Model the fold of this input.
Amino acid sequence: MTSRSTSSASSTSSAGSKAFRYPKMPGTLRADVLAVLLASDDMTGIESIFDQRKQSLSTVIRALIRKYGWPIERRDFPTNTADGRAGWASVYCLPQEVIDAALAGAGRDWLEGVRAARAARRRRPLRAPATAKSRPLAQIDEE
Done:
């Protein structure tokens, strides 16, 4: 157990001195997940950000670790499933030293860009069905 804490401490210290890579597009799932982690929040695989999505949290975390080099920590804990069986769940987080180093660099500006993109998505109206667009307003009112 001490070897794990030693290895995470060494990766944290080396991560504090290197430049972090951020997803370029602020509206992506990778950017949303990294924004949550940089806000000092933990994530589990059952977060609402993944409702109606085809990717799992573990897939996004793997990309953030391998492609972008983020030292994301994973902790497993026992939990009960809906059908009464026991299972394991994972929670993902960034060490506080990594968050502090990222926000001291370009991370704060990147995080603001992701938040602005998220707010713009919320303000965007829902698309109307294709059939409603093609029918004149008089026909819709008569029905």
Remarks:
- Residues 107-123 form the longest helix (17 residues).
